[in-house]
Amino acid sequence: MNLLFELSKEHNALPRDEAISCLKAEEVFYNKVASNEDVLVIKSDAAHDKIKRIAERLSFTFFIDELLFSCSTSLKEINKCAEDNAIYSKGSIAINYKNRSTYTDSQPIVKTLAEVYTKDKPVDFNNPDLEMRVLITDTNVYVGLKIAEVQRNKFEKRKVQYRPFFSPISLHPKLARALVNLSCIKRNETLLDPFCGTGGILLEAGLIGARVIGSDIEEKMIEGSKKTLDFYNLKNYKLICSDIGKINNYVNSVDAVVTDLPYGKSTTTKGENIKSLHTRAFQNISQVLKKNGLAIIGLLGKDMLTIGEKYFSLLNNYEHKVHRSLTRYFAVFQR
Ligand SMILES: C[S@@+](CC[C@H](N)C(=O)[O-])C[C@H]1O[C@@H](n2cnc3c(N)ncnc32)[C@H](O)[C@@H]1O
Questions:
Q1: Which single residue of 129, 171, 222, 292 has CA 20 to 30 Å from 331?
Q2: In angstroms, rounded to a whole number, what is the distance separating the alpha carbons of residues 150 and 7?
């Protein structure tokens, strides 16, 4: 079957790459059929349970559907595709749509689909047996049957201001989760954040079943991370108060590193020059990350990528505009 990932478009590449990394982490075999900023379409025989597990991990996807068809926004074509892609299972149906187009009218599209699909099925918007999802973009219509919805409000509820330990340095949980997913970490594998701050990355990794190790130079951050991880009932964690230079005294070989380096404004470097701290960070992370393991690292500037390339292969880099004068870079390195 073809699976449709309805991407959130919060970034031009991160949502698609997060979904692909999750497929790898969950060992789902697939072939990529199509991808753009709106969707990722893959061919896969993954069981529904597996797809639901992936939906529980993802943060930058809205829905995962079984794709019935995609075509242009022409009503004639939509009608033909719908007639050619009948649904044989019994039960009631609801047709829900999202119109992302600035100029396409959704109503005639939904009416065309309803004429075909509700001919022999009762409509039930409250508790349907089948939920049809229609995604309308400027050029295409994607029609599928919902398999799983990503519960994105849970990330809003875990924002740092609602956790037991607050500091403005923390990443949004949606972004922290996407970075964890990019590392392809599997359940029961070990993930290290050696600049853990409030523990936001550790929390997102712990919630998907990874063992987590966090360290930070500041004792108050370690105490705060502990409060947060305990509050969410995580058990498989270890926290260490340490300068990055001493991390290999405590940690042997981890499966993945996900971290957000200090950038010297609201997050202190303890007076150390940014370049020197970045060099020490890359050096020490490369000593504790297993061979071929991935390190997802938040950096202040593009020139820091060059330092990282002395120790790792750079696989990818995502620019994230925090505000007008601050752009962060999230790089994917492999050891
Ligand atoms: C950008 S913050 C991390 C924020 C974190 N991702 C979160 O969600 O809260 C960087 C952290 O690095 C820590 N730090 C600064 N210099 C360090 C060093 N030399 N070794 C270890 N940690 C250090 C700071 O105390 C700070 O908590």
A1: 222
A2: 10
Q: The whole model's pTM is what?
A: 0.96
Give the residue from 155, 160, 244 showing the smallest Cα distance to 200: 160
221 lines ligand 1 (CB under 6 A): yes
144: which strand partners? 67, 133
Confirm or reject: Cβ of 195 under 6 Å from ligand 1: yes
Q: Do domains 2-149 and 153-334 have the same CATH topology?
A: no
CA of 193 to the centre of ligand 1 (A): 9
- Nearest atom in ligand 1 to 277's CA: 19
What the block records as the tokens of 29 is 């075999």
Q: How far apart are CA 202 and CA 236, in angstroms?
A: 10
> Which phi and psi (to 5°) does residue 261 adopt?
-70, 150
So where are the chain's domains?
Answer: 2-149, 153-334
Q: Tell me how far apart the alpha carbons of residues 202 and 232 are, in angstroms, rounded to a whole number.
A: 11
Considering the domain 153-334 in this protein, what is its CATH number? 3.40.50.150
- CATH no. of 2-149: 3.30.2130.30
Q: Is 26 in the pocket of ligand 1 (CB under 6 A)?
A: no
For residue 156, the CA-to-ligand 1 centroid distance in Å is 22
Tens of each residue's pLDDT in the chain, 335 residues: 999 999 999 999 999 999 999 999 999 999 999 999 999 999 999 999 999 999 999 999 999 999 999 999 999 999 999 999 999 988 999 999 999 999 999 999 999 999 999 999 999 999 999 999 999 999 999 999 999 999 999 999 999 999 999 998 899 999 999 999 999 999 999 999 999 999 999 999 999 999 999 999 999 999 999 999 999 999 999 999 999 999 999 998 999 999 999 976 656 677 778 899 999 999 999 999 999 999 999 998 888 999 999 999 999 999 988 888 888 899 999 99
> Ligand 1 center to residue 9 CA distance, Å?
29
Ligand 1 pocket residue status of 198, Cβ below 6 Å: yes
